Automatic annotation (TrEMBL), chain A:
Ranges for domain Flavodoxin-like: 3-144
Species assigned in the record: Herbiconiux daphne
InterPro entries, per the entry: Flavdoxin-like, Flavodoxin/NO_synth, Flavoprotein-like_sf
The keyword Flavoprotein belongs to this UniProt entry's keyword annotation: yes
Superkingdom to which the source organism belongs: Bacteria
Transmembrane segments: none
Protein name: Flavodoxin domain-containing protein
UniProtKB/TrEMBL annotation, chain B:
SUPFAM superfamilies: Cytochrome P450
Pfam families, A to Z: p450
Cited PROSITE patterns: CYTOCHROME_P450 (PS00086)
Protein's recorded name: Cytochrome P450
Keyword Cell membrane: no
Record keywords, A-Z: Heme, Iron, Metal-binding, Monooxygenase, Oxidoreductase
Family of the protein in this entry: Belongs to the cytochrome P450 family.
Heme listed as a keyword: yes
Protein's organism: Herbiconiux daphne
């Protein structure tokens, strides 16, 4: 199994978090980090675990680097039964109506194609002072624990 | 909630107000937190309303009459979604945390050069012209991928532009804005010609590539370049200068900065909160909105005082006190604005400040005052124009 950390970003925070999360994950197996825009939705495999870090942009939309992946996902509609993923959404709760809607849209698409969500939906809210990397690394430790118990 | 009062609670043009606006904000916050100024603009001083308005998508910047600064409508700062999304996208990748690691090294190099000169001259310097301006201007030129031409011209044009962006600019100030915009557009066109002749990696090349693909117009390239020239040194310069001023007056803060890396971010945030460089952001209503009990019609100008929100005692108890140990769990300061137009350069700004503050405290133990401070406050900007200092350990 490879743990694949995939990020969708607009202003680089998700990319930075993906790299920090990967450092934690390296203690638990082989890890590969990739931008969602360089990822083929047809290649998602039940043999791997996917850790998705994704922000929200525009008016509750996907960030630039996640958009092509989701477009292809919707177009190809690959069968994702048995594909396990965990998701961490970055957003800003100041946008009350569209808080974290981008990553939630991505998660909903994966779910509708049969993918299995692992653990809690992780979140970072840019309206506060919380350090995104700290929250995300703690969250991913939780994911590993849930996964180990499964 | 009173709306119209005989005394002007926020006298934007009054020299006493400009010297120290904070007591005026405090009074307005009590008497009329939603205040209709005699200038005809609505003024907000409480954190609750200010933070909410920053995220209100019904407000426009695009429809505000910018007068001679109208070319800025061709930059992210003056555009609404969806045009804003595209213009902002053109910038984002140059300011990511990863990209900033590179610009941080550039800032360090420019600072080291500046400090070498200062040490050779005996350790006395003007924080504005010898440190803040060269470090930030040279770094942002590197980022744009343009040669650092016309440094003094860029600085002057930015000031003239800033002076005219207040609530009630004089005829001279408006004329100054027109000249500054004209100057910037000529300068930008010149840099574009140079870039087309010998392409250099950087923001400008990427904007020109977007123009070639039809994703941006030439006016948008020029507007964006003008914006980045201005914001690349203005507020960040004030952050650096305000910080060094505090270090000079309170050597204990400089020592805390030097000795405890964990405190550094909080010290910088507190510098931004306690005297916020850009005092307000401006928006216009497109439909009637209700704030508290006050209904504001469509087409009204809102002066959203992020600086006053940063001094709201409901959120920041004892707000005028510089206290980097304060509990910020309730809310974060709004010096970078927020929402769609929230500062695109904040990662860079924090990195540049860190480079300067760390180097000066670690290498020289801080700074000492070396003469009278000269202020250039307007109603829009908290400005120090001259800050003479000496490196402590020289
Ligand atoms: C301490 C330093 C800085 C402060 C306090 C600051 C503050 C602000 C504020 C308050 C706004 C919002 C304006 C509005 O809502 O109308 C803003 C926007 C912006 N800032 Fe900064 N800024 C700083 C440094 C920088 C730097 C170094 C850059 C880049 C070189 C930068 C780039 C921008 C851009 C491009 C926008 C427009 C964003 C948009 O409209 O989408 N800023 N900044
Ligand atoms: C123009 C703009 C629009 C945004 N829109 C939303 C939004 O609708 N909902 C949300 O939760 N966050 C929104 N955000 C906040 C970002 O998701 C947040 O800043 C995040 O940390 C960015 O991560 P990234 O750098 O990986 O893209 C927006 C930010 C910007 C600059």
């Amino acid at each position: 199994m490879t743990i694949r950390v995939l990020y969708g970003t607009e202003s680089g925070n998700s990319e930075m978090i993906a790299e920090d999360v990967a450092i934690v994950l390296e203690q638990h197996g082989t890890v590969a980090v990739a931008d969602l825009q360089d990822t083929d939705p047809g290649s998602l495999s039940p043999a791997d675990l996917y850790i998705i870090i994704c922000s929200t942009y525009g008016e509750g939309e996907l960030p630039a680097s996640a958009q092509p992946f989701v477009d292809r996902l919707v177009e190809l509609r690959p069968q994702l039964d048995g594909v396990h993923y965990a998701i961490f959404g970055l957003g800003d709760s100041g946008y009350a109506d569209s808080y974290s809607k981008g990553s939630e849209y991505l998660a909903a698409r994966l779910d509708s194609l049969g993918a299995v969500r692992v653990g809690e939906y992780g979140r970072h809210d840019a309206a506060g002072f919380d350090d995104a990397s700290e929250i995300a690394t703690e969250w991913v430790r939780g994911i590993i624990t849930v996964r180990a118990a499964a | 909630m009173t709306i119209e009062t005989p005394v002007d609670l926020i006298p934007f043009d009054d020299p006493a107000f400009r010297a120290d606006p904070y007591p005026f904000y405090a009074e307005a916050r009590i008497q009329a937190p939603v205040y209709r100024s005699p200038l005809g603009v609505w003024v907000f001083t409480r954190y609750a309303e200010v933070s909410k308005l920053l995220y209100d998508r019904s407000l426009t910047v695009e429809q505000i009459e910018f007068g001679p600064a109208s070319p800025l409508h061709d930059s992210a700062l003056g555009a609404d979604a969806p045009r804003h999304t595209a213009l902002r996208r053109a910038l984002n990748k140059w300011f990511t945390p990863k990209a900033v690691q590179v610009w941080r090294e550039h800032a360090q190099r420019h600072l080291d050069d500046a400090l070498t000169g200062i040490v050779e001259r005996g350790g006395e310097f003007d924080a504005v012209m010898d440190i803040a301006y060269p470090v930030t201007f040279l770094t942002v030129c590197d980022l744009m991928g343009v040669p650092p031409l016309e440094a003094i011209g860029v600085r002057q044009a930015t000031y003239d532009l800033g002076a005219g962006l207040g609530t009630n600019p004089s005829d001279d100030e408006v004329a100054g804005v027109a000249d500054a915009m004209h100057w910037f557009s000529r300068h930008a066109e010149h840099l574009i010609d140079l870039n087309l002749a010998a392409s250099r990696d950087g923001l400008l090349s990427s904007l020109l590539e977007m123009e070639r693909l039809g994703d941006l117009t030439r006016d948008e390239v020029v507007g964006t370049l003008t914006l980045i020239f201005a914001v690349g040194h203005l507020d960040i310069g004030y952050l650096i200068v305000h910080g060094l001023h505090i270090f000079a007056e309170h050597p204990d803060v400089a020592a805390a900065y030097r000795d405890d890396a964990a405190l550094r971010p909080a010290i910088v945030e507190e510098v931004l909160r306690v005297d916020t460089p850009e005092q307000f952001v401006t928006r216009m209503t497109t439909t009637p909105i209700t704030i508290g009990e006050v209904e504001i019609p469509a087409g009204e100008i809102l002066t959203i005082l992020i600086s006053a929100a940063n001094k709201d005692p409901e959120v920041f108890p004892n707000p005028d006190l510089f206290d980097y140990r304060r509990d910020n769990s309730k809310a974060k300061h709004l010096a970078f604005g927020g929402g769609l137009h929230g500062c695109a350069g904040q990662v860079l700004a924090r990195a540049e400040a860190e480079v300067v503050f760390r180097t000066i405290t670690e290498r020289f133990g801080g700074v000492r005052p070396a003469g009278p401070v000269v202020y250039g406050h307007t109603d829009f900007i908290r400005s120090i124009t001259h800050l003479p200092l000496t490196l402590s350990s020289i």
